[in-house]
Amino acid sequence: MNAKLETRDAGEAGIRIIPVWDPLVRLIHWSLVTTIVLNGFITDPERKLHEYVGYAALALVILRLVWGLVGPRHARFSAFPPNPIAAMRHIRDTLSRRSSLHLSHNPLGALMVYNIWGTVLLLCATGIMMGTIRFFGVEWVQEVHEAAFTWLMISVGLHLLGVFAETWMSGVPLVRAMVDGRKRVPAGREAE
Predict the structure, then answer these.
(1) Contact criterion met (CB below 8 Å) for 141 and 130
(2) What is the pTM of this model?
(3) Which of 135, 148, 77 is nearest to 110 (CA)?
(4) Least confident window among 9-13, 56-60, 107-111
(5) How far is CA 122 from CA 35, 66, 107, 137, in A?
(6) First to last CA, the chain
(7) Domains of the chain and CATH, by start
(8) Which of 39, 63, 82, 118 makes a 20 to 30 Å CA pair with 124?
(9) Are 192 and 90 in contact (CB under 8 A)?
């Protein structure tokens, strides 16, 4: 795909602004961040608020999965399919400074997004299970819930590291793009 067809001049020398993330994708992203912070560090797991925030996280992931099927081009799963081989190639190309820019998630970022969504779904499923008569007090359910949260924190840390590394190496401010929906691509760089 040729990114030049959808760009506009940024008014900054050598920068192209490319609309990528629609408002719903950004709202879901930052709302999910909020639910993770709330349930991970602020709410008491024994209180109803923790449960309600968990349901909100579940609704956000489900909404994002639906949006991945029916949303605009860059929000669709087809824009960032999970592909471990492409992710390994992306790592190799990045280390050799030959990586290309991606308008949606790069292949490694795509794997991380699917990982985070899956982990949040596992947290929600085990959280719901712990609230049922059948699984209340069942040790393995609580252990899976806690292990999933630990994995989520590791994943979020790796995600942030990847965002900052990709920003530094590509020159594209990714956090800003997730705030305003537009990637600022240095001139002369083609984006996939």
Answers:
(1) yes
(2) 0.88
(3) 77
(4) 9-13
(5) 15, 18, 23, 18
(6) 6
(7) 17-173 (1.20.950.20)
(8) 82
(9) no
